[in-house]
Amino acid sequence: MLVISPKWIYLNNTKLEKDKSILMDGPIILDILDNESIEKEYKEISRITYPNHILIPTFTESYLDLNDCLNEKEIEKKIKSLLKNGITRLSVYKKNYEDIMNINTDLVDIAHIIELDGKNINQSDIKKMTDSFDFYKSDPSKQFCLSINNIIDFDKDIIIKLSSIINEIDINVHIKGNCLKNISDKKRINELIKFWSEINIIDNSCLHGVLNLSDYWLSSTKKMNITPMISYNELISIDSITSFSSLLKRNYKCVLITDKSKSYNLYELIKFIESIDIEEKNNFDKNNVLNCVTKNTSNLFQNFLSTDVIKKGNKASFNIFDYTSNQLLKNKNKSPQLRNLDKQSLTHVWSAGEQYKI
Length: 358
Known about the structure:
The chain is of the alpha/beta class. The chain is built from 8 helices and 16 strands.
């Protein structure tokens, strides 16, 4: 066992707690106790203290496009770069997905995304997909997601068959929404959603491109418990960031993704959102942005022990920031805010009870 004692712990993504410690047993958070209890009951256990630090969950990258990587070495380099940013869970997409099934996954949980396109789908694509599912079904370290591109172009019989497969093996579905943005007729929208709901292909799915969809699309899909997937590449203007912030305020459970972006822009986005939000709130993450890379991603990694929040029984994966570094806070005794954290202040990444040297 091992005790980790930072100054602050962000528990359950709801409350910043001071002077508490995490008791780890291998890869698991065995308990979270106040420091006084640790000193009385576990004084013989090895303990690491982080006196000026805040501990929060590690991050999840829910859609990473690897098609720009030419070989396995480049893929592993990109994954290590994300790990240095505090990411310990990944959903990765590559056209030839079979080529990356055996990449090095030390300290990182990986889900593999298979994409099917309604404009050029054929039976051999579905057979190849189901063969992969069958081959890896006995390996719990292999988890799959399905990405559906151009959903409105699928032949009706094929989409029904595909839905049957999805429901039989219970995998997560990403729906690319670019093909929907030009559909504005409410009757047509209702017909599509009704059909997709009847075959159970859209409920609880992940929808990409939501910032380009009408409010009617958004309100209709929210009823189906759909998760909006927002790429950092989409958040390039004040209008788009304001639209994203509006979704959070309306309690949409959004997920932030890197997709094809060349850099990881979470920290910059947090600072920008809080700079345009003048409402004062006395809490750590006043806009719930952190949930977009932690708590809101939980359904996408059902095969793996949860890292979504810091709580007893979850995987011992967390990021530790020195919130006094670079004079981030003039008053060192003041409670930290999420906007004060950045890549430079991230000092330690722990994954499944092991520390990754960054």
